[in-house]
């Protein structure tokens, strides 16, 4: 870090001081040791407001090293304001290499999505979490929810799903869909769509979750069972889309709706922009890509 | 009735500093028996109820419960996990204020189904069918199953709370002034319903009430409390028709004058 002393004299490497990083790493190690369990940590003030990924940023800052390659996505895209500013932050305070390519990244910080391209051993996926407590919906008392986790009293989670079916005829929860980790702790996967839940199951990558405002860290180590809660007669299902991506023709991917004009024109495109671009580079085409498919 | 009690209470006392909550209370509760604990406010009857139902740690004494396998377990030597499991399976607790015992922001069906889900039922259709059946047994129309208790009258809420407690087939139900906040006409209907269910299911119950009419209608046996002590106990009809303790005589004569 001597090389950068001139530029960032007021900062330690990756912004946080070493003592804080050690404290956060201890919380991360504990979280890895007890998959799905929410570990309290002393969340620090970061140079960005709560709600802008301070939990994820602290986790990333505590695990990142000079050799790491960082990718930051928000809503699946690398070019949104939030993703750009977090990426710029780490370039400035850690001088690390950044990328938009999922396969090239060693650390991927995300708010809403898990990349479509399967992650590999050695990669770390860091989630920015707004509300870590899955039981809060029906039980606002923190003392009680902690007890329910400790005693594995998870009937309430099914009450929530029951209400969904009673009201909508099916489980209408599409985001932050609760999962059970390694058969023990019920966990909120944060605002990711349930489409991504199956990607968490037995993932080769390490998954870390940081909630800054709520001061909680939790983790899913590689090759861990992650099962979405459901009923026998209403089994868990992921969202399906009626049409392929308008740009790359991809199916089995998560699509965002994009409004094209004020006459009701719209199209569905990949939420994972890197994956979409990679597919187009390989010659895949959708019906609105404006180019002929490679033959 | 079997030859062994369901609940054994021995010398239960609860002190708040120097102040007596309840003092040296002992009794047995038998299967299928309803015991009324009667007294005015401040008599210690609610403190006793809370000590028996593990909601409040007594200062001294023991409470043991005969589990389904026939073995007695000291409630205060069980792990918290075991106690909480007992409370949501083999026990019920009916609060005076239904909003203390219900989830006001989820539907009636989910309120009744919660205990089933808590013990691992995972078939939505079965849970809903059981909830529908229980709503019927407490005289709530099945077309209210998706309504929240916020939209229910006081009497309906109390009946819903009862269904929510009874759905797992508990053997012992604690009731704290179960008709307390209700209009007189609604009270009568609820008492009828409770008496029918208790009889039909062979429930044991401990009912705390300040209302001798509730004790008369629901209970087989009663204990009368004053200042944390039991002043009289016995078969309900005997105590009410021929009270021995001066305090009980006063209580009985005061309602007869009305
Ligand atoms: Zn695409």
Automatic annotation (TrEMBL), chain B:
The entry's keywords: ATP-binding, Lyase, Nucleotide-binding
Domain ABC transporter per the UniProt entry, residue ranges: 7-252
Database matches in SUPFAM superfamilies: P-loop containing nucleoside triphosphate hydrolases (SSF52540)
SMART domains linked to this entry: AAA (SM00382)
InterPro entries in the cross-refs: AAA+_ATPase, ABC_transporter-like_ATP-bd, ABC_transporter-like_CS, P-loop_NTPase, PhnK
A single MF term (Gene Ontology): lyase activity
Family: Belongs to the ABC transporter superfamily.
Record-given protein name: Phosphonate C-P lyase system protein PhnK
Organism expressing this protein natively: Nitratireductor aquimarinus
Lineage start: Bacteria, Pseudomonadati, Pseudomonadota, Alphaproteobacteria, Hyphomicrobiales
